[in-house]
């Protein structure tokens, strides 16, 4: 009797040991991919006008393939007068002429398809360009399009002079309101003057944006990254007697009164309606995916509190973005951070995210100083080890694979409105985003192989004759080669399905462990210019010897070297991947 009972039980137990239903489930294409961000003006110029373009990107897709990325996210390529370099869109349904034609774009999608690379576009839903047909029609008094934007009466000050409706500030300094004679009212622009905010309380705007999403997804685009999404909705002014209320001061003493950071944005950011809008967009993504069988990816760009960021994943039954960007490795840490700071920054997203969702790792973009500049060139491999081997989606801003640094852009050459609007030839540097947008460095030819033009739209960074893709391809050891090896390693099941644990071994050395089905890898990164000896047996089940699988460029170790995990020597800024 007893034996009869035990036998089936034994069977269940032995099964349970080998099978975990969450393991080895089929992953969607995006769950294990590397998303490579291309800033189109700066990647490759095919026609010699000094500005990168779509044909240029198509001609360089092999590079994307070679580094192991599975998706390319393009910063905006839509028709634009370029007051904010494409983030001010005049026609959401057309390609900007400096970038090429719709045919060029279709060719890009086709070529990418052959290489099994997905194309993701940048959706900029918060505003249009002031040169859009919609805004132009609004200025002519066309009622339909007037309601596409956010208008408000000015107020008279004590001297009888007309002033903006309230104290709201633009992200790029100064009032967020601009008067238009034609309408006799002010319009809202949370970003530059040339970017009037769309009015999401108007159902026509909501439908228009969904049609824009459908239009591009139907062209085979694999998804969107959604720009500045938390600024979509302003508070409903009817709740405030028909007038938009002032925002309270932030109390920050390190910023002046023209700065966006001087106010608490309680009425212009993170409004509840914004999340619901994102969930509706997700339905549109899924609707198209159902039609053609290609799962679509939505990534949202939000700099907000971790709890607000998490709401983009969805709520209850509603699904939202699969990938709300995790900016913690940009905003919370830098070269001066301790290993404990790094651990906390990494664990923040993993701790707050819903258990069935993926993490993602971002260390740079076209708005932030380049990763190699922020962390220092010696840490490039170590940081790429984090981005590519932590659990979740890896995001690489073009150039991180070779450790591209910020370029120097003089006041005369500065074009970014965030820099120009300071009117300050000294301090513009703190605000300008041009340094992280300088042209990509392909080789040691003229303009780093980016363009044959005599003058490129931004100057090529100094030092390109040494720091470029070709040099790193031909050199025995380089950031590029480490990156490629990491991208390969990332394909292993242990990095796709494996568990994760981390320890700050001392103030400088951060380490994490990934393990799966009896395989264990350890990644060790020394944040500092110091020699160390660390004890990896602080990790559970880590004893004995481990072999070096990969190491940073300046590492004195060799692949295959074996070390006692209880006393691993670590060189200055060294990054090491070991296998137990
Ligand atoms: C759009 O705004 C810019 C300022 O950003 C201004 O120079 C330009 O004249 C405006 N264009 C139109 C059509 O209103
Ligand atoms: C916004 O949504 C949250 C979560 O659903 C809710 O707790 C909160 O009360 C809402 N806020 C407003 C102003 O409606
Ligand atoms: C990271 C990013 O794409 N930021 C963008 C946010 O939106 C403004 C206005 O569209 C752009 O200027 C930024 O580049
Ligand atoms: Ca060009
Ligand atoms: Ca808005």
TrEMBL record:
InterPro entries documented for this protein: GH (IPR017853), GH13_cat_dom (IPR006047), Glyco_hydro_b (IPR013780), O16G_dom_2 (IPR045857)
Domain of life: Eukaryota
EC number: 3.2.1.20
PROSITE patterns, sorted: PROKAR_LIPOPROTEIN (PS51257)
Alphabetized GO MF terms: alpha-1,4-glucosidase activity
Domain Glycosyl hydrolase family 13 catalytic residues, every copy: 37-437
Recorded catalytic activity of this chain's protein: Hydrolysis of terminal, non-reducing (1->4)-linked alpha-D-glucose residues with release of alpha-D-glucose
Extent of the signal sequence: 1-16
Keyword check for Hydrolase: yes
GO terms, biological process: carbohydrate metabolic process
Pfam family, one: Alpha-amylase
Family annotation (Gene3D superfamilies): Glycosidases, Golgi alpha-mannosidase II, Oligo-1,6-glucosidase, Domain 2
Keywords: Glycoprotein, Glycosidase, Hydrolase, Signal
Major enzyme class: hydrolase
PANTHER family noted in UniProt: ALPHA-AMYLASE FAMILY MEMBER, NEUTRAL AND BASIC AMINO ACID TRANSPORT PROTEIN RBAT
Family per record: Belongs to the glycosyl hydrolase 13 family.
Name of the molecule in the record: alpha-glucosidase
Organism of this sequence: Leptosia nina
């Amino acid at each position: 009797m007893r034996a009869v009972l035990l036998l089936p039980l034994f069977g269940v137990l032995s099964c349970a040991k080998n099978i975990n239903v969450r393991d080895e489930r089929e992953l969607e294409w995006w769950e294990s991919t590397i998303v490579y961000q291309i800033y189109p003006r700066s990647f490759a110029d095919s026609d010699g006008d000094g500005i990168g373009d779509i044909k240029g990107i198509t001609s360089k897709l092999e590079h994307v393939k070679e580094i192991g990325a599975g998706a390319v996210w393009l910063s905006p390529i839509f028709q634009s007068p370029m007051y904010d370099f494409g983030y001010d869109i005049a026609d959401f349904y057309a390609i900007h002429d400096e970038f090429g034609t719709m045919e060029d774009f279709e060719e890009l999608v086709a070529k990418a398809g052959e290489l099994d690379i997905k194309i993701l576009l940048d959706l900029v839903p918060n505003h249009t360009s002031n040169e859009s047909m919609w805004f132009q029609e609004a200025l002519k008094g066309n009622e339909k399009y007037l309601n596409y934007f956010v208008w408000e009466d000015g107020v008279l000050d004590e001297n009888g002079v007309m002033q903006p409706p309230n104290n709201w500030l633009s992200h790029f300094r100064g009032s967020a309101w601009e008067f238009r004679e034609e309408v006799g009212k002010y319009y809202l622009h949370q970003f530059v003057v040339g970017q009037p905010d769309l009015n999401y309380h108007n159902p026509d705007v909501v439908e228009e944006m969904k049609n824009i999403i459908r239009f591009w997804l139907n062209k085979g685009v694999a998804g969107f990254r959604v720009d500045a999404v938390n600024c979509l909705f302003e508070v409903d002014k009817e709740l405030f007697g028909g007038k938009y209320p002032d925002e309270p001061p932030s109390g920050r003493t390190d910023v002046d009164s023209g700065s966006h950071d001087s106010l608490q944005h309680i009425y212009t950011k993170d409004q509840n309606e914004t999340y619901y809008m994102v969930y509706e967009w997700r339905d549109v993504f899924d609707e198209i995916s159902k039609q053609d069988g290609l799962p679509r990816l939505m990534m949202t760009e939000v700099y907000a509190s971790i709890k607000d960021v998490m709401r983009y994943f969805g709520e209850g039954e509603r699904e939202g973005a699969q990938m709300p960007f995790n900016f913690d490795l940009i905003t919370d840490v830098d070269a001066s951070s301790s290993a404990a700071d790094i651990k906390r920054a990494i664990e923040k997203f993993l701790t707050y995210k819903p258990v069935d969702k993926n993490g993602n790792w971002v260390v740079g973009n076209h708005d932030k100083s380049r990763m190699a500049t922020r962390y220092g060139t010696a840490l490039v491999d170590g940081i790429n080890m984090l981005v590519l081997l932590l659990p979740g989606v890896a995001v690489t801003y073009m150039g991180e694979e070779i450790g591209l640094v910020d370029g120097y852009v003089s006041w005369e050459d500065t074009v970014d409105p965030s820099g120009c609007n300071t009117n300050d030839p000294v301090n513009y540097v703190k605000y300008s985003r041009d340094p992280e947008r300088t042209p990509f460095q392909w080789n040691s030819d003229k303009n780093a192989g980016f363009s044959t033009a005599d003058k490129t739209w931004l100057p090529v960074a100094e030092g390109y004759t040494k720091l470029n893709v070709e040099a790193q391809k031909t050199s025995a050891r380089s950031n590029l080669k480490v990156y490629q090896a990491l991208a390969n390693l990332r394909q292993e099941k242990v990095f796709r399905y494996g568990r994760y644990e981390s320890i700050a071994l001392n103030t400088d050395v951060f380490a994490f462990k990934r393990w799966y089905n009896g395989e264990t890898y350890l990644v060790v990164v020394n944040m500092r210019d110091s020699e160390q000896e660390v004890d990896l047996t602080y990790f559970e089940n880590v004893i004995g010897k481990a072999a070096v699988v990969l190491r940073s460029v300046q590492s004195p170790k060799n692949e295959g070297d074996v070390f006692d995990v209880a006393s691993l020597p670590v060189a200055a800024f060294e990054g090491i991947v070991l296998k137990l």
